[in-house]
Structure prediction request, 404 residues.
Amino acid sequence: MGVLPRRTRRPEETRMQLRHGLNPQQTTAYAVPANPERAPVRVLQGQPSYINLLDALNAWQLVREADRTLGLPAAASFKHVSPAGAAVAGPVDAAAALPYGVDPAGAGPLTSAYLRARDADPKSSYGDFVAVSREVDLELAELLARVVSDGIVAPGYAPGVLDVLARKKGGRFLVMEADPAFEPPESEAREVFGLRLVQERDRIPLTPDVLADVPVGTLTDGARADVLLGLAVLRFTQSNSVCYVRDGQTLGIGAGQQSRVDCTRLAGAKTDTWWLRRHPFVRDLDFRPGVRRQDRVNWRIRLVEGDLTEDERDRLRAAVAGEREGAPDELDPGRRAAWLARLTGVTFVSDGSLPFRDNVDHAHRHGVTTIAEPGGSIRSGDVEDACRELGITLARTGLRLFHH
Prediction:
């Protein structure tokens, strides 16, 4: 008896129906795999929207690349098709763990990666889309059950995990499974206003070879790893984009700005906020029972931003308990400046060439000791001079990573 030919699946059989397009009024929306025989992701629970799918596909590519490059579990927290934060597994401190009821010393590798990713910008990560590079375990599932999040994409789920996630959002929490072996086609296409745009996919691997031209000994091993993580992050962040990275986690990401120096300043302000939240005055703020987790996160951020309105001061006083009840609870400029001066060892990575030295000057204000950028600007000499003047190590990658 001969072998029956494999049946080719029709496009309508592989169509993924979406809840809606970019906006709810765009009611007709669906996705179809380029190869009907193999899709990069599948839905295990819930129904994605158009933006959910964009988040899932970008976030999965980011964590997969970071894991492949650094050999560590990676996590990303996505909002509006750019990461609010990304990290690989590593030490978790109290400022990152305690708001979510996690023992900092007991967090497993995957949970630590996600806590560190969400901690970069926990205000923006409210309602995020999560991506992790390894199979989701019960520890991470139980953490996700406690935070406000819209969905997750991962290469697999341990026994019992889907039962935990099924209870989140009344079963509407989106759970997607990525095919870790899937490789996309050589070219990619999109249609805009009736015009189909096609380009070769950017396939340059983010390996240590990217830094082969950087003199040996110029970068510490930690800075080299942070550069590679930063490049993986920026490859899937809306351009213009820059990120500040330290010890395997992003501290601040600037995405989608028309001016690169605005990106640098925006991400630098987020980096300062990340560091100031670790000040004991802020970290140990004691809230009254009943103050919600995200409200506690947001109050700490507003406190370090330093521009509370009178109404906010009154509400913060009402939320605080114990010895600090009724206190104005604002960091004075002296303590703020002294604490910020202690931040160092930060790596700054840019997806495009730095066109002026002002990016270097601003980055230096936020503890940056290493800068990685493609080079090739007509003012690259000015950038190099600024780095030398400020004691910053400059690594030229020769690699632009625009993403739109």
Summary: Residues 50-70 form the longest helix (21 residues). Residues 1-8 have pLDDT under 50 and may be disordered. The two ends are 52 Å apart (CA to CA). The CA atoms of residues 252 and 271 lie 5 Å apart.
